[in-house]
Amino acid sequence: MQLRIDTGVVADARRLATEIAAPVTSFIAEHSTVAVERSVLRLLGVDGVCTDDAPVPNRVLERLGAERLAGGAARGIGALVAET
Fold it and tell me: Which DSSP symbol is given to 7?
């Protein structure tokens, strides 16, 4: 079975998705804080404490680093999930 997918339609969908996501990403970058990002991680189910009694969301934010956090913790976690 072969799917007949119009590559032009796919390209348009990707372009539209980028146009939709860009202002949201900018808004997040301007308004987010470490506390907000920890809360986002908890909403995603990242919770608990490490062996040194530090909260897991804190350690995750440290490991994600500034580059991956630029678009928010959820985006960083999603990128890591996609990598693995």
Answer: H
Residue range 37-46, pLDDT digits in tens: 899 999 999 9
φ and ψ of 3, to 5 deg: -85, 130
Q: How far apart are CA 47 and CA 26, in angstroms?
A: 27
Report, in angstroms and rounded to the nearest whole number, the Rg of the chain calculated over CA atoms.
17
- 3-state SS of 23-78 is HHHHHHHHHCCHHHHHHHHHHCCCCCECCCCCEHHHHHHHHHHHHHHCCCHHHHHH
For 48, left (φ over 0), alpha (ψ -120 to 50), or beta? left
Please name the amino acid found at residue 12. D
Query: Is this model's pTM higher than 0.85 or not?
Result: no
